[in-house]
UniProtKB/TrEMBL annotation:
SUPFAM superfamilies listed in its UniProt record: Glyceraldehyde-3-phosphate dehydrogenase-like, C-terminal domain (SSF55347), NAD(P)-binding Rossmann-fold domains (SSF51735)
This protein's record includes keyword Transit peptide: no
Record family assignment: Belongs to the Gfo/Idh/MocA family.
Pfam family, one: GFO_IDH_MocA_C3
Origin organism lineage: Bacteria, Bacillati, Actinomycetota, Actinomycetes, Micrococcales
Name of this chain's protein: Gfo/Idh/MocA family oxidoreductase
Domain (GFO/IDH/MocA-like oxidoreductase) ranges: 141-261
Length: 344
């Protein structure tokens, strides 16, 4: 079935999603949606040139444009919303009110306290929605979840999640990012409860600014960690950092009484072993798009299958409620210097 898939917001992640739509569905029409016709046209030309060079794309991709001032959802089979977070609620509402399945970047709203009510409102339309917690579509994390669910690991005791950005965030982005808890570590706050199928009951969080005062100016951190306690008694240690110059490092290790497994510890891991007979990784990941290149493509593959009615969303809006609660609790803990209880 030939589809018409829109992309609203054409920054780095929006353009990546646009490319992956064409790579996964070469017969689809890609509709670029934005405010500036000049920027839309420049992006269209750039994508056409780069995609035409891909061996997987046998014909020139079908790419059209429309502005947000138009009835932008008309005739779309699906839409990807990758604009700034503050616009997510209104754009997602508009899409589902017009019956258009969505993939919307996380978080669903900058106001995390709004997410439960917003999720209920959006899901009441019965239109499929994926919130872009991409690790649920990552092969390694899916396998890790299967191992945990199989019971073969025994009781799960400890989880260690590493989420270290290779570079500092663009200074212009920091004031609008929501901060390290909502922008970076919210992925771990989503992934770990999903892996364990367990409810967090408390979090103790701390953070600091080591080498870029622009974070302090925005009440943000460039280095942070959190200890999460779950209802089962399992504990998770989450560490997040910007400008970890050895390379992008995102991994989740789970330790059970009978076995331990990880997702993301591979021959690109940017930690150099010092024991005799060991060797450092030859190459490391440059950034999160490099680290999760296959995952982002798999996410779009799942989205297109959802649009065709072949599968369900793994990340409906309500799936983000736990991550939102954890992010808010971490913010409170870091502010007060005390553990924060989470009541359900």
């Amino acid at each position: 079935m030939s589809m018409r898939i829109g992309v609203v917001g054409l920054g780095r992640i929006g353009q990546l999603h646009a490319r992956n739509v064409v790579l996964e569905a070469p017969d689809a029409e890609l509709v670029l949606i934005g405010r500036s016709v000049d920027r839309l046209d420049a992006t269209r030309k750039s994508l056409t040139v780069s995609l035409s060079a891909e061996s997987e794309v046998e014909a020139e991709p079908k790419i059209s444009m429309r502005t947000l001032s138009d009835a932008w959802a008309d005739g779309l089979d699906g839409v990807i919303i990758s604009t700034s977070t503050g616009t997510h609620p209104d754009l997602t509402r508009y899409a589902v009110e017009h019956g258009v399945p969505c993939l919307v970047e996380k978080p669903l709203s900058l106001d995390l306290a709004e997410i439960p009510q917003l999720s209920e409102q959006l899901e009441s339309h019965g239109v499929p929605i994926m919130v872009a917690f991409h690790r649920r579509y990552d092969e390694g994390h899916q396998r890790l979840r299967q191992r945990i669910r199989s019971g073969s690991m025994g009781p799960i005791r400890l989880i260690h999640a590493v989420n270290h950005d290779h570079r500092h965030v663009d200074p212009d982005y920091i004031p609008h990012s929501g901060g390290i808890w909502r922008d970076l570590l919210i992925h771990d706050f989503d992934t770990i409860p999903w892996l364990l199928d367990d409810r967090p009951v408390s979090v103790y969080a701390t953070g600091g600014v080591l080498d870029a005062e622009v974070y302090s100016d925005c009440d943000d951190f460039d280095t942070a960690s959190a200890v999460i306690t779950f209802a089962s008694g399992s504990q998770a240690l989450v560490s997040g950092g910007r400008n970890v110059a050895s390379g992008q490092d995102v991994a989740t290790s789970v330790y059970g009484s009978d076995a331990a497994f990880s997702a993301g510890v591979d021959d690109h891991t940017p930690v150099e072993p010092l024991e005799s007979g060991t060797a450092p990784s030859v190459t490391t990941y440059e950034d999160f798009m490099d680290r999760f290149a296959a995952t982002f493509r798999g996410e779009i593959r799942h989205f297109l299958a959802m649009v065709r009615g072949e599968t369900d969303s793994l990340t409906p809006p309500s799936a983000g409620i736990v991550a939102a609660r954890l992010a808010m609790a971490a913010e409170e803990s870091a502010r007060t210097g005390r553990p924060t209880r989470i009541e359900w």
